[in-house]
């Protein structure tokens, strides 16, 4: 290599790709619906990439110094990497064209499935709400550079006058995140294919170099995670081998390895010793490299890219402290530059797109664009000295001070209440006493049937809500429409014969936002969308202050439903951990403190429901597992406060009131102990997709409270037959005592249509009756 270009003094690891007004989502969905062509979709995407480059340059990233990352994806960056290296599962072989590539339709088919070919599995991306597609690797996978999209995108930027930085998921992370293909023998490890994969990365680096790329970003987040099954020594060996190999290539761009989402720990010395030019560290979630003195890491021949601007949250933060952190690392490395801790994929585009947050809250926030401005300021501060950016640093610390002192950020009554909590507030009576009291109060049949809460959200319901937001539907008219819907849903459930009814949640736009809108301490955005997976986006609420409940939230709806039927109606709330996990949460106090405040607000709500005659209350915690920290050492503390907050929310009721919870996943085993500690009287859980895997965990580890392993996979419109449902119930009853078993679907029905809902619930009842008859 000739003298390499220096790493840019300020950069970001990635930028949201969905578009300020979700243009990519709309175009991709239009392509799926057949209303635009592949060429039109390509044109829209190229337009978004061009606009992004201009925007990033306008915000202060260099146009021609590799500061702008090419982080666009039509669907997901892990899928892109799989397609780039030719890792297309055999069941999709027919999609591969004569020239060995996939067209856009083929690419999306891997993500969405087709006919009997199931799509790639989807799972959570580290500790974020983003989900990636899981590549499938086996002995039969033939790696080759099957797509040159990365090179073409770089060329596209060049043609527009930019010298950008291509980004790809690194070989170690790619294989660690993959699962063995269907054809792989038992015990096969995708990482065993590293030798065959690396030549493809080598070819790609060669091509990028030939195209003129000066730097390439190789993302290796899997190195910070301990939630990966592969033994650490193997991971470190693979890392060493990969970067020795890639680093020694004759022709390549300078290599920047980034490691977002936590500390590299023992992978740090490995990367420090590798022949790469820059290393990106997450200094927000992770520790500074000098904080672990027993790890010898010599970075004196490298650029240390200091991820000091939080890519994971929406707060403006302490700019002065970030600069100090970066300055403090100067002694360790040849050079220190500024970056975000993670890609900005996890935050919305810009605070400037929000008109209703108010000046004060707005001044405390930084979405993607504002974070880039921060990066530019810090980079300048590092280059030219603190004095050069004194105005910006002062403005940021003033905003922070104003935030700390603002009314609502701390509320004396809320603080007094959490401070006065004692152990007794976290516990109910014994399970035996509760069981007896509930049996008497509820008199339910054996194998009680119920649903998870929501019924289909029809377009009429959504339209009514949209009109209320626009102001063209009066609040009272909206209320009457929702009551009519509740009445319909109650009648339907009675006709079907379910034992425990729900009101159907028609009034909720979203299970978290609905509560955020009704609690103090939260704000909601207009355009604050972030990608959850593919074209799916969520709009997290902003939890900025102490949380309290100004008035009852769900009581009117629940009591109205109960007034229509003699069967018990189950009240329906979202739990503290899930409200936290699916919001942007304040960063100025421990999560556990915030969780307890939400728990107390919910405790009041549950108390009011109980007083109003609701005998069963479900508190959903689908995110309980999702927030589990990546590092094992942090998990006990997390489980302590998360489980504690659920208990605090639910422990205020009498023995006769039955508390349910719902969890959206089937890997019960890892958190079974935590679920047991929730001490809910009944837990419903996803189980149909895994054909009742959860039953095995229960048999081996024990669980003595009520349990409803979902028998109907509601993620697909398919209607399960009565025999199939009988089979699943029999499987459950083989291992779980009959008195514990509840019969319910896997999850809420809000995304389903009425046709399949009615048929499936009827089949579920028929199956239950036939099993009951045999008992
Ligand atoms: N009660 C919620 C519903 O039925 C639960 C949804 C969830 O767990 N994601 O929609
Ligand atoms: Zn669910």
TrEMBL record:
Q: Which GO terms describe its molecular function?
A: 5-methyltetrahydropteroyltriglutamate-homocysteine S-methyltransferase activity; zinc ion binding
Q: Which InterPro entries match?
A: Cbl-indep_Met_Synth_N, Cobalamin-indep_Met_synthase, Met_Synth_C/arc, UROD/MetE-like_sf
Cofactors demanded by this protein? Zn(2+)
Q: What pathway does this protein act in?
A: Amino-acid biosynthesis; L-methionine biosynthesis via de novo pathway; L-methionine from L-homocysteine (MetE route): step 1/1
Q: Which residues bind Zn(2+) 2?
A: 662
What's the short name of a Pfam family annotated to this entry? Meth_synt_1
Give binding positions for 5-methyltetrahydropteroyltri-L-glutamate.
Answer: 22-25, 124, 129, 536-537, 582, 626
Supply the name of the protein.
Answer: 5-methyltetrahydropteroyltriglutamate--homocysteine methyltransferase
Q: Please give the organism.
A: Cryobacterium frigoriphilum
